[in-house]
Amino acid sequence: MSAKPTSLLVLANSGRAIAESAHRGGYRVTLIDGFCDQDTLAVADCWPITQGFSSLDVEIFVKEIASLFPDNPCGVVYGAGLEESTSLLKRLSEFCHLFGNDPSVLELLRRPQRFFSLLDRLQIAYPEVSHTAPYFATTRSWLIKRAASCGGQGVAYFSPEYAATDSACYYQRFIPGQVMSVLFIADGKRHHTIGYNTLGIAGSGAPAPFLYSGAIGQAYLRDAVRSQVELAVVKLVSELGLRGINSLDFVHNDAGIFVIDLNPRPSATLDLYEHLLPDGWIEHHIAACCGELPEVPNNDPAVMHGHQIIYAPRNIEIPNKMAWPQWVSDRPPAGNRIVEGQPLCSLYAKGANATEIEAELHTQRDEVLWMLGPSIYPSQPCLVAV
Predict the structure, then answer these.
(1) 238/121 same-domain check
(2) Is residue 381 part of a domain?
(3) Domain residue limits at 215
């Protein structure tokens, strides 16, 4: 099989960004995700999956995928949403080239006791973890989390009425500080850092406190703090043989850095650096998975990029003549009904600093909600040309 197939199968909860990047690299893209948005359909053959990958019958699904590529071997790139679908990835790898981390890495992350034991052995700091409920904890001092969830969907503040439902659930002490991530590309032995990101956009309207709501790229970190993060990445790449584009989430405060999650696949923050490469990052992701570590282009320090997810403030039906602004991505097709609390679309802005970007994203959010109708946003905002 060729190391670089002409066709790519992309699997993700929301795969628009990966599909666009792969399209820039010259690939014919087939995407299976939960949205099949307008901008996705412009670059890929898209097939919707409504109940998530973990609910699929693996054998039936694999046969259907094989029928899409009867003569031309394909490559597979996976994003968020496959964390609990390692059996599916293993079966797909039997006839497609899997460009990403081995499913064994995802299996490790599904087992919190194994993962945190690994961090202990590697001397990587993380917030205190308990596998029994901290019933005597003060309010909001502990979290209940589900391993192998993504985008903050499996995280909530612990309260006594919650209890772990299985071995994938655990409890972790809440640590105040700035939540950040480092996006990096690796070849199984070495890595190059793509960028540091500040996670979470104030006022995003996310329906849950830890649900991913956006990020601002090119975040600044002092050299001493950056060294701590880079050392953690070096250890994890070496130990797990990480390949392709990955990200590591952490909390940063006066005591140092504390690792929260390892995302062993392209994350949402990759979109903040797509402008650096005309042929897209997925081309480089594939090269790194084949053992060739690409150089990372320099960022322009004068321009930062940010994005934000709008979550529907109520049930919304997309108008037939909705004219989406150019800075909106993940655009639902006309007639789609978006349930309250579900992702509506994504906004993108750039500016000289984080404050400027947040202000622009806030203005964009107001404009989009007003365009969707007075019942959603009753007063017309001050619109700014961008």
Answers:
(1) yes
(2) no
(3) 107-289
Last residue of one domain, picked from the residues 224, 254, 289: 289
| Contact present, 210 and 155 (Cβ < 8 Å) | yes
Long-range contacts of 55-60 (CB under 8 A, 24+ apart): 56/85, 56/88, 58/87, 58/88, 58/91, 59/91
Q: What is the token pair recorded at 164?
A: 């772990």
Q: How confident is the model at residue 386 (pLDDT cuts 50, 70, 90)?
A: very low
377 part of a folded domain: no
CA angle 11/266/148 to nearest 5° reads 75
Nearest residue to 362 via CA among 307, 281, 291, 300: 307
How do beta strands 178-187 and 243-253 pair?
antiparallel
Tens digits of residue pLDDT in 267-299: 999 999 999 999 999 999 999 999 999 999 998
Q: Is residue 58 part of a domain?
A: yes
Tokens found for residue 77 = 């790139």
Residue 382 clears pLDDT 60, i.e. is over it: no
Residue pLDDT, tens place only, 87-138: 999 999 888 899 999 999 999 999 999 999 999 999 999 999 998 888 887 7
Predicted local confidence at residue 68, as pLDDT: 81
Strands 45-48 and 28-33, bridge-based pairing: parallel
- Among the candidates 228, 261, 289, a domain finishes at 289
Within this chain, do residues 47 and 114 fall inside the same structural domain, yes or no? no
Q: In this structure, what DSSP letter does residue 157 have?
A: E
Contacts for 354 with CB less than 8 Å, ≥ 6 apart: 198, 216, 219, 304, 306
DSSP letter at 43 equals: T
Domain total for the chain? 3
Q: How many CB atoms sit inside 10 A of residue 141's CB?
A: 12
CA atoms of 272 and 215, how far apart (whole Å): 8
What is the average pLDDT score of the chain? 90
165 and 113 within one domain: yes
Q: Are residues 111 and 88 in the same domain?
A: no
Co-location of 111 and 73 in the same domain: no
CB 84 within 8 Å of CB 146: no
Please say whether the beta carbons of 73 and 96 come within 8 A: yes
